Amino acid sequence: MLHNHLLVATIIFVMTYTAIISEKINRTAVALFGAVLIVVFQVLPQEDAFKTIDFNTIGLLIGMMIVVNILKRTGVFQYIAIKTAKIAKGDPLKIMIYFSAITALSSAFLPNVTIILLIVPVTFVITDTLKINPIPFLITEVLAANIGGTATLIGDPPNTMIGGATKLGFMDFLINLGPIVLVILVVTLIILKIVYRKYLRVDDSNKQKILDLDETKTIKDKKLLIKSLIVLGITILGFTTHQIIGLESATVALFGGVLLLLVSKVEPEEILLEIEWTNILFFIGLFVLVGALEEVGAIEFLAKKMIQFTNGNLFMTVMFVLWLSALASSFLDNIPFVATMIPLIKDLAVISTMNIQPLWWALALGACLGGNGTLIGASPNVIVGSMLNKKGYKLTFTDFMKIGFPIMIVSIIISMVYLIVFYI
Question: What percent of the chain has pLDDT over 90?
Fold first, then answer.
């Protein structure tokens, strides 16, 4: 019976993955259908299928989405963007660097997908005012979002998933990944500054138009802004101390989200409608699919094969996980890839004497930074491509890859050196 379940689970998983990669069918619908098939074919009973769902990841995502959806109503993101453009005195090269730095920093403390959705419309306003092509700005911002999101538990979904599956907390991610992410961001911005320097020249008259913008008009609700910033501060403080006070990260995020929902007096229906439920349900489907593979022994089999391939050598295993994660995440969505890798790494701890903590950092760095390789590597990339198309600009897969892939390789080489020096 177990053999039959192994075969059925593997077929369902492969078919679901193939459909997700093809992007011909909605990925959420495919993932949920695959998860339901797992129960229909009795690979897992319904009760056990629900147990495979990582509600810590789900709760963390929902809580932070509530906070951001209320915060964006205040207009604070537009205020910061216009103020930054004025500090740069309308210089497009400085604006590109400053916007990307803000995107990276924001993406460390708020979900990077949300930050991209907020920063891109403001970038269009600035580039339209300057009468300049927005593509260099948006490519730089999306690369910065993926890099910045790598630094913390809440910045990028792969990290959220790793944190949910392990005992690693917010400060673990920040301390272990923050320093190298800062180095990678600085190197990336220097490279992009050199690449785009000759394309970012504008007339002084257009620079003056930026200086004439009034950022104070963007703040729509000062009272709501104060409440939102206080709750956001409490939430971030909760993340930095959640292991000390004995709370899961999802509890902290949901506390912040529900508290802000309570004190903001914004209609809950409005906020809850804006939550990205399609992404939440996509995660749920993946958790069931991977949980089924784990239950039937497929993940343990792969873990044993990995040990054979690397001879149980920590250096070889860390390098394998880092580069496999980076290359796979460039061409596949990094979320389903990480969902598969997490139980595999957990099984390595059971079947070998290896210290697996460096593998979590290798997986996080590879999956998050690997997303910069192509236009489909991470959710922020896909969103930017779609928003550019709506504005009448064409960002092709090849155009993005010419910039993103070499920068991704440089990022992974820097990560490789970092892991060797500090963890192996």
Answer: 59
Each residue's pLDDT tens digit, 172-210: 999 999 999 999 999 999 999 999 988 888 888 888 989
Distance between CA 33 and CA 44 in Å, rounded?
14
Nearest Cα to 152, choosing from 365, 400, 409, 424?
365
DSSP state of 217: G
In 166-276, alpha helices (H): 170-196, 204-211, 222-245, 249-264, 268-274
The rounded mean pLDDT for the chain is 91
Predicted confidence (pLDDT) per residue in 260-295, tens digit: 999 998 999 999 998 889 888 988 998 899 889 888
Residue 171: partners with Cβ closer than 8 Å, 6 or more residues away: 240, 243
Measured CA angle at 282 (ends 340, 320), to 5 deg: 20
SS (H, E, C) 275-322: CCHHHHHHHHHHHHHHHHHHHCCHHHHHHHHHHHHHCCCHHHHHHHHH
What are residue 264's phi and psi, to 5 degrees? -75, -25
Q: Is the pLDDT of residue 1 over 60?
A: no
Buried b / exposed e over 96-134, threshold 16 CB at 10 Å, is bbbbbbbbbebbbbbbbbbbbbbbbebbbbbbebbebeb
Residue 371 corresponds to which tokens in the numbers above? 């997303």
Local structure of residue 264 (DSSP, 8 states): H
What DSSP letter does each residue of 319-352 carry, written as one string? HHHHHHHHHHHHHS-HHHHHHHHHHHHHHHHHHS
322 touches 366 (CB < 8 A): yes
